[in-house]
Amino acid sequence: MSSHTSATSADTFLSRLEEEIRNDGAVRHPFLSRFASEKMALWQLQAFGLQHYQLVRIFVNYMTNLLPRIPDPEAESLFRVVFNDEFGQYTIFRSHPALYRSFLRTLGLSDGAWGRVTPLPEVSRFIEGHLHLTREGDFLEALGAVGPGHEFSIPMMFPPLVAGIKNNTTLTDGDVEYFTLHIEEDKEHAVVFNRLITKFVGTDEGQARLRRGACFSLSLRKAFWDGLNRTLFPVGKGHL
Question: How confident is the model at residue 81, as a pLDDT?
Fold first, then answer.
């Protein structure tokens, strides 16, 4: 097929991509169902929280890297709602990293514990891969990684995390607000990203680049879940 014309409209392409993501190995990873259903000790929840926070704290850097590279004058206005949510809009104490640190405190972790943890190799590869892509890689691939690869997929991956946390602790809805907030907010963010994406996927080439970035991000997410599964549920070790 020609790279200058596409047999698939942008809306149809995005619908197909989203269906592909719904069935992706990262979204349907066995770790998620295991986390949701198994009895876990506090050390497992703390290990999960500390490793996952490493991804949380860096996410806004991906968008900061990506924004000036998008050749569209409307990009900044489209991104503003996402930036405002990530940064907490009116106070830094409502920023997403701040909300996550509050969650870590409810798990009994002291301030600074999140800075002393040694990241899993999968965590480091996740961060390095996304930083490189958003900073130096193809901008459409980067858009695919941050948009469909993150904002569309996260609302499907977070409910099992909430279930596992609530099933193994006495934490309140407020304590897990970081997760429940993302289940709703990221649905809205995905719509924002799709409005931007439709400007660039009018060709087969553009669609392939966008999809490649989404798949890249999801492959790193799958590896991240693999690493957590190995760490939280080691073979031959009792969990309680």
Answer: 66
Per-residue pLDDT tens for 47-105? 999 999 999 999 989 988 988 888 877 777 777 666 666 555 544 445 788 899 999 99
Residues whose CB falls within 8 Å of the CB of residue 212, separated by 6 or more in sequence, listed in order: 141, 144
Q: Residue 240: inside a domain, yes or no?
A: no
Instruction: Report how far residue 238's alpha carbon sits from residue 125's, in angstroms, rounded to the nearest whole number.
Output: 28
CATH of the domain at 82: 1.20.910.10
Token pair 């996550």 is found at: 100
pLDDT at 38 over 90: yes
Structure tokens at 139: 């901008």
Burial 109-148 (b: 16+ CB within 10 A, else e): beeebbeebebbebbeebbebbeebbeebebbbbbbbbbb
For residue 61, is it within any domain?
yes
Residue 237 lies in a domain: no
Using alpha carbons, select from 94, 68, 93 the residue that is nearest to residue 79: 68
Domain count, the chain: 1
The single-letter code of the amino acid at 50 is: L
The per-residue pLDDT for 84 is: 62
Confidence tier at 191 by pLDDT (50, 70, 90): confident
Give the residue numbers spanning the domain of 52. Answer: 10-232
Report whether pLDDT(18) > 90. yes
Per-residue b or e along 59-69, where b marks 16 or more CB atoms closer than 10 Å to that residue's CB: bbebbebbbee
* The token pair that represents 157 in the structure block: 């991956």
What is the rounded CA–CA span in Å between residue 239 and residue 42? 9
pTM for the whole structure: 0.89
For residue 68, tell me if it sits in a domain. Answer: yes
